[in-house]
Amino acid sequence: MHVNEKGVLSHSQAYFYTPSQLAKSILFYVICAGHFYCDNNYHVKRTSYNSFLLMYIRAGEGTVCFDDKVVTAKAGDIVLLNCYRPHEYSTGGWETVWCHVDGNICTEYFNLIYNRSGCVLPLHGTPLIPDCLNNILKTLQSGQVLNEHLVSCHIQRMLAEIYGIAAQYLTDGTDQAHPMLKAITYIKANYASKISLHDLADHLCMSVYYFSRVFKKTTGYSPYEYVTMVRLNRAKDLLKTTNLSVKEIAFAIGFNSEANFITCFKQHTKNTPTEFRKVPF
Fold first, then answer.
1. Which of 4, 12, 63, 131 is buried most deeply by CB count within 10 Å?
2. d(Cα 271, Cα 267) in Å, to the nearest integer?
3. Alpha-carbon gap, residue 121 to 113, rounded angstroms
4. Residue 143 domain boundaries
5. For the chain, what is the domain count?
6. Dist. CA 82–CA 224, nearest whole Å
């Protein structure tokens, strides 16, 4: 369908879709998608458009305004916006492939990605996201009955790929560029000892409040949750690869009692350590 919108050139196309109630309840789903060629008259400014935007910049560049930040989006970048919140984007000329999507956990996915890397990320030539966007667009163009489960898979794959790219913002570079990497390294080296929130904050020369907030924003875990995760992962290894008793494992991974270890292990795995050890894999 051709689009009559200021700044959108005549050979651009957009398609709309009304998802089923099933899709709205359990899937990621598409609301609309398009392939736009735009000139310098193209400017979108909205208070809200109830969806999330995935937009791949095929050529040209523009600016994206979100959360009081202005970011340049250029060819090869992916833009991910929470359009439930005020947003704005414009260009001096670009070609984009885009779709507006939603789903029950879109907000959580967006927050994980945005808190790590913002709303514009370089794809470095990775073809998966452009391919998924093109597949969704071609399906809508065809006019055939939409396989909502397949479209949900495409959306989930794109979000997972973007999350993976965002995660590199933590793991790439130096400790100085990513101070939370210092905290993670410290936890992995000292999980068998008592680790307090004050210990971690002091290690990074931060206040407890600021450290806790930044750690959660960066990793998706609270410091306590991350320490627990590291300890339990090690416990699982020891339960499956050694003959150490449950009590010995508890103290070896930093718990102060066997009972606390068993309670924590069952809370996270639904099995006691002994039950876990006996389950064949």
1. 12
2. 8
3. 10
4. 13-171
5. 2
6. 29
- Nearest Cα to 80, choosing from 105, 99, 104, 103? 99
Q: Which residue has the tokens 């936890």?
A: 187
Top pLDDT among 167 and 211 is at 211
pLDDT tens by residue, 13-53: 999 999 999 999 999 999 999 999 999 999 999 999 999 99
pTM flag (> 0.85):
no
Taking the C-alpha atoms of 49, 50, 51 and 52 in order, what is their torsion angle to the nearest 10 degrees?
60
- Structure confidence at residue 232 (pLDDT): 95
Which residues share a beta bridge with 98? Answer: 34, 55
Two tokens at 280? 């064949």
**8 Å CB contact between 41 and 55:** no
Q: Is 151 part of any domain?
A: yes
pLDDT of residue 5: 87
Residue 197: give its domain's CATH number.
Answer: 1.10.10.60
Same domain, yes or no: 120 and 232: no
